[in-house]
Amino acid sequence: MTDSESTRRTEVSVGARYLAAFVTGPEGPAPTLVCESGLGGDHHAWDPVLAKLGPDVRVITYDRAGYGESPFASDGRHLWSLAGDLVAVCDALAPTGPLVLAGHSLGGRIVRAATGQPVADRVAGIVLVEGATDDFITTTPRVAAAQAWTLRAMGWAAASGLMRTQAARRRLAAALRSDPRSPSIDAVVDNVNRPGFFGMVQREWASMADPMTPAPQLPAVAILGDDWEDWGRLTRMRFGTDAKQLLASVRDDFCRLYREGRVVTVSDTTHNIQRDHPEVVVEAVRSFL
After folding, report:
1. Taking the model in full, what pTM does it have?
2. Which has the closest alpha carbon to 57: 23, 88, 18?
3. Dihedral of CA 71/74/75/77: which sign?
4. I want to staple 114 with a disulfide (CB 3.0 to 4.6 A). Which of 83, 138, 203, 214 is the partner?
5. CA-CA distance, 193 to 286, in Å (whole number)?
């Protein structure tokens, strides 16, 4: 379902720029799943989920500004801008019929911000794959500082050409549990070597501090790991916390915002649950379809 013959590429106009979007599944006003990727990830991040869903579900994925096939945006990439782009994709490609919105990490926060806009009237449910908390930057300052440093370091590495090496490709593939020769790793390598990419990602990261309007009480599922296998001792020291504590804060935040929401816990996973365990995401999506 993710090959070129079954995917329809289109462009969604947002002012003077556009977003590259990809539609699979049946045409018409069928229930539609719209996927929002996490920080640094383009539409390929959802390929494992699409492969498990099968051809009967209509799915829209897209590249945020500056990712994949979408040109850069000149705005500050504030939360309301990111959510506005998601709403523009929904309005252009799924103007009628119910929607299920799925967001990973930062994408979960973008999804939640989008549901504060008129599109919320059509949202049948939301799936938050370790969606970022409201107060992440303020309550975990060491984590926020370490992440900002990591993004700067990766930007320097990309500018120096180090991100084009086979060693860098292997490390990226290992982090994503993917074959270094796979098209999804090609997409990641292309993104991280795009001039200006990490500057834009840093602007997206800064949106974590933007205020969030109260979340409407929509049917919601949170998918969380019980730990992150890829978080070793050095990472814990640098971040000043561990994965279990961070995941507990994400769970608490979700339960506060969605009192009737359902939490699904997954073992043997990294932060990229949609890649490691796409079947869990598919089950959550189908519960709303």
Report:
1. 0.90
2. 23
3. positive
4. 83
5. 36
User: What is the rounded distance in angstroms from the CA atom of residue 246 to the CA atom of residue 227?
Assistant: 9
Neighbours of 5 (CB within 10 A): 6
CA angle (90 as vertex; 20, 39 as ends), nearest 5: 60
| Angle 149-183-289 from CA coordinates, rounded to 5° | 90
Residue with tokens 């109260």, as numbered in its chain: 214
Whole-number Å distance between alpha carbons of 70 and 104: 19
Q: What's the CA angle centered on 191, arms 236 and 66, to 5 degrees?
A: 105
Which residue, chain included where needed, has tokens 């009737």? 260
Please give the backbone phi and psi of residue 103, each rounded to the nearest 5 degrees, phi first.
-135, 135
**pLDDT tens, position by position, 3-44:** 444 889 999 999 999 999 999 998 876 789 999 999 989 999
- Could you read off the pLDDT of 231-262 as tens digits, one per residue? 777 777 777 778 888 888 899 999 989 999 99
State which fold the 8-136+215-286 domain adopts. Answer: Rossmann fold (3.40.50)
Distances (CA, A) of 252 to 10, 41, 173, 219: 38, 25, 31, 17
Report helix, strand or coil for 217: coil
Question: What residues are paired with 101 via a beta bridge?
Answer: 34, 126
d(CA 134, CA 79): 11
Contact (CB, 8 A) for 112 and 253: no
Q: How far does the chain reach from its first CA to its final CA, in angstroms? A: 18
Q: Tell me how far CA of residue 17 lies from CA of 11, 69, 84, in angstroms.
A: 10, 12, 13
> What is the residue extent of each domain of the chain?
8-136+215-286
Structure tokens at 145: 């500082």
The tokens of 53 are what? 């869903």
